[in-house]
Amino acid sequence: MSETTKLKKPRGKARLLDGKCIACGARCQSACPVNCVEMTDSGEPIILVEKCIGCLKCVKICPAAALEMAFTPEELKILQEIASQQEAGAPVDEELDDEAAALAKKLAAYHDVWVFIEQTEGVPARVSWELLGVGADLARARKSRLCAVVIGSQVEPLVSEAFAYGAEKVYLIDAPVFRYYRTHSYLEGLCLLIDRYRPEIILMGATGLGRDLAGAVATRVATGLTADCTGLAIDDKGHLMQTRPAFGGNIMATIMCDKFRPQMATVRPNVMPMAVHRPGATGEIIRESCPIREEELAVKVLKIITDSTSTESVDITGAEFIVSGGRGMMGKLNFSLLKELADELGGVVGASRSAVDAGWMPPDRQVGQTGKTVRPKIYIACGISGAIQHLVGMQDADLIIAINRDKDAPIFEVATYGIVGDLFKIIPAITARIRELKAAKAA
Ligand SMILES: Cc1cc2nc3c(=O)[nH]c(=O)nc-3n(C[C@H](O)[C@H](O)[C@H](O)COP(=O)(O)OP(=O)(O)OC[C@H]3O[C@@H](n4cnc5c(N)ncnc54)[C@H](O)[C@@H]3O)c2cc1C
Ligand code: SF4
Ligand code: SF4
């Protein structure tokens, strides 16, 4: 049996690359913890190699990639050996400086992926189950456990649902003071659990409640929070990669929180697929109580008035068929064409932001980055160009049909079927054909 010798990874010494320094103002010098960078009159660094401890700080901070680490031939040999040991699966001892060692120790105290189970008077928000799906992937990648956090009053039934959707462990705080959501009480409850059990990752729905609570918690526990993520994954160092649209949706940014824990992210409803439901699954329940009392809460809930009192209000996020209209609809009245088609399909009418801004449709119908994220079985985009801010809200539909008279419209890039032509002719023709087929079936 052969035994692998544990090798220490050499750190090397910093070296300036010829012609690369842009004399940025001595960032490398300010970053060096051992004062081994001196500056020339032209603003370029001279590395005092004998003092350099190879901490990489100057290399990381240089905006021009003008610095690199140099290794002696012996060190290069060790690096090669380490690489082959790593390929064979052996662990490698990396020498850490005091700061990095303290950070690594701090981060190692946090474990597990938590999903906050949002509920209103015991009714769960669907997004929580969607998050258990992506949470399971993250927990698998981290070789840790997927846990759910249930806070409320008489919410025990949600515990078994959380197990059914894949949680291995549920943290439960069940008390009358949590009957209605109030930032103060839920903040105390969740922070108590975080202090006691130290989760590595916390996922919450980017709903009104989730956004409010996540911001308050992240501030209290002094960590980072990435809102409205559209992608979550684990990098090769074990950190959470949180992807979301940035700069008005024109680029996708991957945000990391590599120095603080927990790593917190919110995700909008319908962005992640639902977790598989396995009724009867069980797991561990941790019951906790939180000392917060009703008298301490400044906010009192007198009456709940739900949106459903408005007859106009439609929740497009749960619809299986959505017929959406954009600026190409040319006016409010023309949306009746879409309503007729949606009615035939048993669906609802959605809209692009341009149509909403023009006052043709109410804001709750807007699909996209600043509207709703939808995942219907069929999405029919009528007179919508396909700006990235619209696409991020509907591109995960099972089937997309685009109708546009411009054959180069970007919407065709995500469409399953594209129809190039005048929507004022095409939509009535589709509606009429569906009616014919229905009538033939009924006859
Ligand atoms: C920060 C930010 C957030 C945003 N958030 C959102 C969001 O949430 N949702 C959203 O939708 N947008 C959003 N936008 C706006 C987005 O950038 C686009 O401006 C918007 O989506 C365009 O709407 P549209 O496709 O309806 O209009 P247009 O881009 O004007 O497209 C109209 C389309 O209709 C077609 N057309 C015209 N007449 C006909 C006809 N008779 N038959 C067939 N086709 C026809 C045209 O060829 C054209 O492609 C956001 C922008 C920013 C900066
Ligand atoms: S590697 Fe670290 S010690 Fe060496 S020059 Fe750069 S900052 Fe200074
Ligand atoms: S940080 Fe980079 S660009 Fe700036 S002075 Fe140092 S070597 Fe030059």
Fold and architecture overview:
With 443 residues, the protein is α/β, with parallel strands linked by helices. It has three domains: 8-89, Alpha-Beta Plaits (2-Layer Sandwich), CATH 3.30.70; 110-296, HUPs (Rossmann fold); 316-442, Rossmann fold. The protein has helices spanning 27-31, 57-61, 73-87, 98-108, 126-142, 156-164, 183-197, 208-221, 335-345, 353-357, 388-391, 411-414, 423-442, and strands at 8-9, 13-16, 37-39, 45-47, 67-70, 93-94, 111-117, 119-120, 123-124, 146-152, 169-174, 199-205, 225-229, 231-234, 240-246, 251-255, 263-267, 284-287, 321-325, 348-351, 378-382, 399-404, 417-420. The strands form seven sheets. The protein has a seven-stranded parallel sheet, sandwiched between helices. Strands 20-19-21-22-23 form a five-stranded parallel sheet. It has a three-stranded antiparallel sheet with strand order 14-15-16. The chain is globular and about 90 Å long. The chain starts with 7 loop residues before the first strand and ends with a helix. Bound molecules: flavin-adenine dinucleotide and iron/sulfur cluster (SF4) (2 copies). Residues 248-249, 326-328, 352-355, 366-371, 383-385, 387, 389-390, 393, 403-406, 409, 422-424 line the site of flavin-adenine dinucleotide (FAD).
